[in-house]
Amino acid sequence: MEEKLNFSAVINYSERYAEKITTTFFKETNSISGKQILELSHIKQINLFILRAVFQAWRHEIKKMKSPYFDNENAEVRDALTNYQNVLSRHISISKADFQPMLIKATSQTLFLIMDPYDFYSELLDRKNGSGITLKQLESEIKYIQINRPPLENLVETMKKKICHP
Question: Could you list the residue range(s) of the whole structural domain that residue 107 is in?
Answer without folding.
Answer: 1-115
